[in-house]
Amino acid sequence: MVAAAHPGAHPSIGKSTPVHKRRHYCSVLSDHLEVRPASEHELALVVAALGDGPFLAERLARQSEDNGVLLVAWFDGDPVGCVYVWLEDAEERELREHLPGVPLLNRLKVVERWRNNGFGTKLVRIAERVAREHGRKQLALGIALENVDAERLYRRLHFEEWQHGLVDTYYVVFEDGNEVRAPERCRILVKDLDESTGGGRPSAPSERRSDGEELARAQSRPPGPAG
User: Lower Cβ count inside 10 Å, N or C end of the chain?
Assistant: First the structure.
């Protein structure tokens, strides 16, 4: 399902409805910062900066099948952060029942030396734009119960906990090239999207101050059965 934290981990979510329309996103947020979908020829550079090679390769493959969008933030030509927007149906029964068709944020991550610059906030804003341009009205994610930094970040960005309780899920890590799953319980945060959310708009000063501190642990991934 959707959760935030555990570097190198990503939840396993079942495949279902593919996204049929391919869109191209590129947002130049300043003379130095650009957010755009990852491409195969840039993958090695992104992995060198962010790690998580198996996860990023798997998400890039999903993007190639129009099942999501792997966004990468570039600062002065170097990759400094990423987030994946999961556009398939969720595997978790709870999410399919209460949030049908709602995209999920996976693995929001910013390179440590570039935190405290609002890059994480900008990635979330562009992810919101992706969801809206796919005709979605909400965006969701899951966070581990102990991940208070991630919760603080997302609540500041106007995500709210849903009313359907905690979700039992698992997260996935790769050890020696093998996928390993570990159980996890997480809380689900949801945001209603409208024009006022302004995906890609410049972040406010208050957003810039706390972004890096919270992203030290706020790495979003989706719930797996459930996470």
Answer: N
Half-sphere exposure of 214 (CA within 13 A, CB side): 26
Roughly what angle, to the nearest 10 degrees, separates helices 148-156 and 205-215? 160
Separation of alpha carbons 210 and 218, rounded Å: 12
Residue 206 has pLDDT above 50, yes or no: no
Contact of 185 with 5, CB cutoff 8 Å: no
Q: Compute the half-sphere exposure of residue 161: CA atoms within 13 Å on the CB side of its CA.
A: 13
Helix axes 119-133, 205-215, angle to 10 degrees: 100
Q: What separation in angstroms does the CA of 182 have from each of 9, 61, 171, 222, 226?
A: 9, 23, 5, 14, 11
The residues, any chain, with a CB within 8 Å of residue 117's CB and separated by 6 or more, are 208, 211, 212
Tens-digit pLDDT profile for residues 72-96? 999 999 999 999 999 999 988 899 9
Domains of the chain and any CATH numbers: 3-17+83-221 (3.40.630)
pTM score, two decimals? 0.77
Can you state the percent helix, strand and coil of the chain, rounding each to 5? Answer: 30, 30, 35
